[in-house]
Model the fold of this input.
Amino acid sequence: MSKEKQVIACWGISNVASLNVWEMQSDESMLVGINDDEPEWIEIEWRIDPESDDEENNSMAGIDYHGSFYRLDDCMRVTR
Done:
């Protein structure tokens, strides 16, 4: 990844890996990648939250990164 861009948010995957967010394009997609690997644009999706008891407000936003769904509300903001 270019040194010009900085990580703005991340999901912790393990003690040696994180899924980093480099950039967002409104509410449509995110530029993400594991550690310093080449990032890619992933579309933000809305899915039904299976844990929600609220029938009217049971959707959750997230991204499907290579078969794993990462909820946006689990993402940690990175500040410098």
In short: Strands lie at 9-12, 18-25, 29-34, 40-48, 59-65, 68-71, 76-77. The chain has a mean pLDDT of 89.
